[in-house]
């Protein structure tokens, strides 16, 4: 399988039918975090260790899907040239995944002033209603304002470019949406399981046959609601996709050092990485 964007360190790639853009690959504090201890953790002279909060953008059969909106979402869109979002999926309502949603307002303009379809779990929808009550509308109040058409994420979401299957994954006191994307025209498939402590049997079953698997890999030492690098690596090996990526990493994870220690078909994602096939 040829995957554009690996090892394209500058994040440039030829666009094919299915494309994933890693807009951010960092944990909730970002990397570097505020007042990061000098000399501790990853080498900040390496641009791959500078991580904004985690989200991905997906083009599937010409349909553009945004998964989560980090606090840096506006700058991520500008930096990576995003000018289209047709559907938005929120994996869960934690601050690092939801607080950029106000900047979806520009995509309402670009979609002809229509509300943007937004899918999430009950927990995620409730958080959107709490934080963005002014945006729960059929149309923006005025040009330049956001409007969200909220929908409960189904087991299988049918979109113009293909399907997105969802499954609940454990993440501390809540569950998050694990997502499996399958392009209709080609059958290309990838799995996105971020912010989870484990990947259970149901999740592994719907992910079977994925060309690419993306997993939560927070740091080397244990955490109550995230997989460690070791746990994520073992899970990736068991899921046995042709290629896997780890995301949502802290400052304790140095890109080059950790990458060198991983199996050949498992890699660390980094901000701006584009994967196309």
Structure explained in plain terms:
The chain contains seven helices and 14 strands. By secondary structure, the protein is of the alpha/beta class. It has one domain: Metallo-beta-lactamase, Chain A (4-Layer Sandwich). The strands form two sheets. Strands 6-5-4-3-2-1-14 form a seven-stranded mixed sheet. A seven-stranded mixed sheet has the order 7-8-9-10-11-12-13. It is globular, with a radius of gyration of 18 Å. It starts with 17 loop residues before the first strand and ends with a strand.
The main sheet comes to: 7 strands, mixed
Poorly predicted spans: 4-10, 12-16
How many structural units, i.e. domains? 1
Number of helices: 7
Overall geometry comes to: globular
CATH class: Alpha Beta
Evaluate the radius of gyration.
18 Å
CATH architecture: 4-Layer Sandwich
Task: Supply the helix-strand structural class.
Answer: alpha/beta
Distance between the termini: 7 Å
pLDDT average, as an integer?
94
Sheet-strand content, in percent, reads 25-35%
List SSEs in N-to-C order.
Answer: EEEHEHHEHEEEEEHEHEHEE
| DSSP strand count | 14
Q: What is the fourth-level CATH superfamily?
A: Ribonuclease Z/Hydroxyacylglutathione hydrolase-like
The order of strands across the largest sheet is 6-5-4-3-2-1-14
- CATH-assigned fold name: Metallo-beta-lactamase, Chain A
Helix content: 10-25%
